[in-house]
Design brief:
heterodimer; A: alpha+beta; 5-stranded antiparallel beta sheet; 5 helices; B: alpha+beta; two-stranded parallel sheet; globular
């Protein structure tokens, strides 16, 4: 994954990379605190799996040091269901076909919630310099 | 990296001296540019590019954030 290599190169020795990824289970559509639909996130999860594997490989190689992991839920808010459906039109995540008209008909504000994992990774160069000094 | 429509950019910019926010999606980057509050605008440079396309000086950033994007 060349993007990861380029970003590691961009960070100064001792600097940080924060890696934010979606994690299973599936995201959901939330209306007034109630779940009204589950979203198929598998395609995005597969991308996240590949990204996680790439980061793991760099941790194993000693290019990055994992300092902390935080799992949390994130929500993106929409004015109404039509706005949400439009936003998902080109997304890797998919609203089940039979639920698209149901969600699109919602005229209240709603949100998509998803489980996320934030990893704090340090580029270890500075520590090595400090040790040598 | 992968700033999209700037969902995280505003919060990062509030804590940073300078932010380079980039994404290959030109429409999303334009939305991010418009959404950024005026008082933070001079701290953020938006680019339409992927990580592979971007020219970045090595060791020039304290922090990189992958926004659901790696």
């Amino acid at each position: 994954m060349n993007a990861l290599s380029r970003m590691i190169e961009a960070v100064r020795p001792g600097g940080l990379i924060l890696d934010l990824q979606v994690i299973r289970p599936n995201p959901w559509v939330e209306l007034n605190g109630r779940v009204v639909a589950e979203i198929d996130g598998e395609a995005l999860f597969r991308c996240a799996d590949a990204a996680t594997a790439a980061v793991e490989a760099r941790v194993t190689a000693g290019d990055l040091v994992e300092e902390a992991v935080d799992d949390h839920d994130a929500r993106k808010h929409y004015t109404d269901g039509a706005e949400l459906v439009e936003d998902f039109a080109e997304s890797k995540r998919r609203i089940p076909t039979e639920l698209v008209p149901v969600v699109a008909a919602i005229e209240e504000s709603l949100a998509v919630g998803e489980h996320c994992r934030l990893r704090r990774l340090r580029v270890p160069g500075q520590r090595l310099v400090e040790t040598q000094a | 990296m992968g700033c999209g429509e700037g969902r995280l950019t505003e919060g990062i910019a509030a804590e940073a001296a300078f932010v380079l926010a980039f994404d290959p999606d030109a429409e999303a980057v334009e939305q991010g540019r418009k959404a950024l509050s005026a008082e933070l605008a001079d701290r953020v440079s938006f680019r339409v590019a992927s990580a592979e396309q971007l020219e970045i000086t090595p060791s020039s950033f304290d922090l990189v954030v992958f926004s659901w994007s790696l």
